[in-house]
Design brief:
This protein is an alpha+beta fold. About 65% of the residues lie in helices and about 20% in strands. Strand 1 (about 35-40) and strand 2 form a beta hairpin. The two termini are about 25 Å apart.
């Protein structure tokens, strides 16, 4: 179980590091991504981007 926690943590770090690059490609602005302001803070929930990224990762894993 510890190994899976480490894998998830590393994956989240990589995704966080790649966020500016992915935003240049259009991720985060897809229909289905929710962005709203509450009490002066901007909340971003990337539903559609998450689905697209998981489909891409699944396709890559099938090829390997």
């Amino acid at each position: 179980m510890t190994r899976w926690l480490i894998v998830v943590f590393v994956a989240l770090l990589l995704i966080n590091a790649m966020t500016p690059w992915l935003q240049k490609l259009g991720f985060g602005r897809l229909p289905g991504d929710v962005r709203f302001k509450v009490f002066g803070r901007e909340i971003f929930i990337p539903f559609a981007s998450t689905i697209v990224l998981s489909l891409v990762c699944a396709g890559i894993s099938k090829l390997l």
